[in-house]
Amino acid sequence: MKFLVLESETAEEREARRQRAGKSSGETYAATLTGMVPGAEVTRIAPADADAPHMGLEDIAAFDAVFVTGSPLHVYDDKQEVRRQVAFMRAVFASGVRSFGSCAGLQLAVFAPGARCAR
Prior knowledge:
InterPro entries: Class_I_gatase-like (IPR029062). Residues 8-27 are annotated as: Disordered. This is GMP synthase (Glutamine-hydrolysing). By secondary structure, the protein is of the alpha/beta class. The N and C termini lie far apart (36 Å). Helices cover 44% and strands 15% of the residues. The chain has one domain (2-111): 3-Layer(aba) Sandwich (Rossmann fold), CATH 3.40.50.880.
């Protein structure tokens, strides 16, 4: 199985979480997934980052599932980091790959296709 983990934290937030908890949210997801599915291939991407590598629909479609982590970011905050994540989530939906989001990942899952989220 091939899983894509979308880290929805910024680079600074990922580092702060590593200092607090030992791993970023995406690293925690990756460890959990490989523990649940031995031999699983897990790739992490951080589309909130301006320098994140581009993934097209074909790239995303190569995965069996996409998992979206939690984050202190919120979709109702109009920030460039949020806009990049929303665009990536729209690409996930367009690819047809199954996805799961927790916390901020759930916000992205409902906001990307057009629903509203509020504080």
